[in-house]
Amino acid sequence: MTKRALVTGITGQDGSYLADFLLEKGYEVHGTVRRSSVEKFERIQHIRDRVTLHQMDLLDQLSIITVLEDVEPWEVYNLAAQSFVPTSWNQPLLTGEFTALGVTRMLDGLRTVNPDIRFYQASSSEMFGKVRRTPQDEETPFYPRSPYGVAKVYGHFITVNYRESYDLFAVSGILFNHESPRRGLEFVTRKITDAVARIKLKQQKVLRLGNLDACRDWGFAGDYVDAMWRMLQLEEPEDFVIGTGVMHSVRDVCRVAFEHVGLDWEAYVMEDPAFLRPAEVEELCADASKAKRLLDWEPVVSFEELVRMMVDADLERHSG
Ligand code: NAP
Ligand code: F7E
Fold it and tell me: Which of 17, 27, 120, 148 is the catalytic position?
């Protein structure tokens, strides 16, 4: 029997990779999109005729219930959110509405329509923020450092709470940074690889960045959507940390990306205080041993391979 999945945020980086992955597994894939005066479906253009799209907004409970009733999914992946950390200081209330309360709206919708639906919540390593210990695992206490991080902590605990209160199969995947050629241009890895391509092609002269010392555990989005799916195939719902266990700095991303096109990063990168944050997350590093043990999941793409893959894709895009 064909399994049916609903992906909120299917137009985003992860939504598009998850849709690819689920189609490959033989799923009937449905996705939610926001009404807009222009369509922004670039990331799913290649599968547009293989997925069914439904209008829904995390702010609108009726739209959530209607989609759940129409689609009758087995699995729901809640990837929709306001996901850019700096924007969360400029729009803290909207971020809370989408990224925090939106999760409750999804869970309530599911509980109302069919409590047997399996639910994945896209939680984030940003919840660890000012880290209490390194590396971070499922037991590490949270200390978020942005309105986005705070909203994700709410989303995490409301998922745990609905699981415990209503016996839902609801899981929270605590994913560390994951990137790809489909990453939004404002996130640091893509900002760097896009600039490297443009500088190499003489379309840009300098690259302005904020904190070069910030360290993250960067993996490939294509590997991480596999982990999401594995979580929903378990017998019992459990939460998981997903990451590579290897930490690099923003400086390292610059070095690998510029080196790949034969340039010295120090000749092009300028530090600009405009990109510093009111409160910074200095370093994040995952201990994903639970995922390895119970999901048999491990990342495939290394940090260097990831950065080079992104530079190559941006070079191709800008050369065209
Ligand atoms: P993304 O590229 O920014 O995609 C976000 C998606 O959410 C887009 O499809 C967007 O639609 C949709 N969306 C935003 N507000 C909405 C609303 N009010 N109603 C309905 N849809 C809405 O994010 P991503 O990198 O794929 O991340 C996916 C999820 O994982 C997010 O929840 C993010 O916070 C979380 N996460 C990401 C990472 C990471 O490193 N990528 C790590 C941990 C957790 P539009 O196209 O209309 O804007
Ligand atoms: O920043 C530093 C910045 O914006 C990474 C989201 O997917 O991952 C992402 O959040 C680091 C920060 O990602 C620039 O200060 C320096 O320390 O790429 P980012 P993020 O904030 O870690 C988590 C797991 C999520 O859940 C989020 O949704 O890089 N940095 N200079 C810069 N960052 C940006 N964006 N731009 C710069 O110029």
Answer: 148
